[in-house]
Design goal:
With 637 residues, this protein is an alpha/beta fold. It is built from 23 helices and 14 strands. Bound molecules: adenosine-5'-diphosphate (ADP), magnesium ion and zinc ion. The site of zinc ion has 5 residues, from α17.
Amino acid sequence: MPVNDKPRRPRPNPLSTILLLLPLGLLILNLVLTFGNSPRVSKVPYSFFLEQVQDGDVARVSVGQDIIRYQLKGTEGNIGQVQETTPIFDLELPKVLEANDVEFAATPPAGNRWFTTLLGWVIPPIIFVAIFRFFSRGGIGGGGPQGALSVTKNKAKVYVEGDDNKVTFDDVAGVEESKAELEEIVEFLQSPQRFTEIGAKIPKGVLLVGPPGTGKTLMAKAVAGEAGVPFFSISGSEFVELFVGTGAARVRDLFEQAKKKAPCIIFIDELDAIGKSRAGGNGFVGGNDEREQTLNQLLTEMDGFGAGDATVIVLAATNRPETLDPALLRPGRFDRQVLVDRPDLTGRLAILEIYAKKVKLGENVDLKAMATRTPGFAGADLANLVNEAALLAARRGSKVVETQDFAEAIERVVAGLEKKSRVLNDKEKKIVAYHEVGHALVGAKMSGTDQVEKISIVPRGMAALGYTLQVPTEDRFLLNESELKGQIATLLGGRAAEEVIFGSITTGASNDLQRATDLAEQMVTSYGMSEVLGPLAYDKGQQNNFLGGGMNARRMVSDETAKAIDKEVKGIVEAAHQEALSILKENKELLEMISQQLLESEVIEGNSLREMLSKVHPEVHVQPEQHAQETQKPLAV
Ligand code: ADP
Ligand code: MG
Ligand code: ZN
């Protein structure tokens, strides 16, 4: 006979049904026997029994463990009545019986006793086995070599093509750039040959990064829906659970299953739950071993597959990319990162349109106005907003959702989410607009800063209320002194704009100041750019080359040196501040103009931005000489 080593798993397992029914049958049998055995006897209290013994009425007694059965003396040919009593612990009983001339004996083990014993020994294991079987049938798909030990089975939910609630890219809006990136992934999945034939490697991992509720999970599902491939979805936290060591086994099992169904997608939601930096926290002491093992297994699996045969693409989502282990992000693993950001005005409108289609909308509802009023809302907030409005309309007894419902819903969501989605009031919005334009203008004027690509006052997830996006025009490995000073001035441009326009400053610039001061300190202590302090490194150099780190510890320095360092750092920052101020004062009209425009449109980018910024000064493209000269001067401290 051929050996069939494929684990068999009959679905309606008849054996376990029998095993479940068996104890029940035995129990019934036992009860029947117990009752069937008992003759009709009357039960009496123990004290009454003792009285009868002492009165000499009792002929014989059979003493059992839980029952005493006795026969009264018969009278003239009548057989004595049989009675029962429940014994109490009484060592004197034999003496009493003997003294009264009663014939007595211990009850031999009753006929049904062995049943009880049997049941006691047999039933618990049977129940145990039955429960175990019940649970081991809970996992999905065929069994791995682990057999009954199903705790190692992963709990991935599988969405397969043809599901009723299939998600497509049409269901996602307002994140067009991210969508475009993912459309490429769909192509990889649909026709991998096209890419592999010319020797290109298909990316293994794509990491979706962005604030909560922006549609990361939704987009991952849309990729599966568009590509028409199976989609294994699991949350990072589900790997690490209950039993030590199951996380790694689950990862292995998940990839095993996925490879069988290739091409397919594995989606790991909340990747940071397992992917946290191994160097993080309290260093190498007392890390989370379990999580680390799981992470290592994930890294191993991602390295292991690929190479032509099976197209398995791992999508993952996180809103804390900064905590991820650097090993996860290197090429060959999650080498692609897709930013899924909060939508801007047009994006919000598009999302509102999607969800408005699902409710009955009044004729005069202006969705554009709603989108304008909801800066900072993520996709999930907008979906929720439409639903809230519909609920309010229904409560009002209206047949359609009207503007007033939206207005009230916005208020509700805003009041409820005030901290979460940071909706700015008009005054704050104005300050943020000037602040950001300040960065942009100084950045456009200074050398060594990257080109300003986008200014936005849509509050952005992690920290900023608005932001100025600068993209490098080329890879830079060396920066000179004036370029660093340009960067510091740009960082201070936001605060300078607040000073120039409002005459006061807000708390919004603290991160800018932090970064500017860090840079200035590095100039003095790491790069030897201070004339006063000379070309000495006052910090201790990189501690760990692979895992990066924050600021370095300072060498032991004398008090005077420490004072001099502080003075130099302050001087650099202050000089940059003055420079930023003078640039903005010079270009105050431009600052006003761009800020007003920004307040209207929330985002300015691309060509229109470049055009505006080109008016900044006769010489936009800053001459390095001029700055070089400036920086040759000893710092006025
Ligand atoms: P994330 O995973 O980024 O935290 P989800 O993908 O779980 O967010 O989004 C939650 C819900 O919000 C989605 O199911 C969807 O209904 C809605 N949603 C979020 N972003 C969008 C979007 N860009 N377009 C359409 N709906 C969205
Ligand atoms: Mg999610
Ligand atoms: Zn700023």
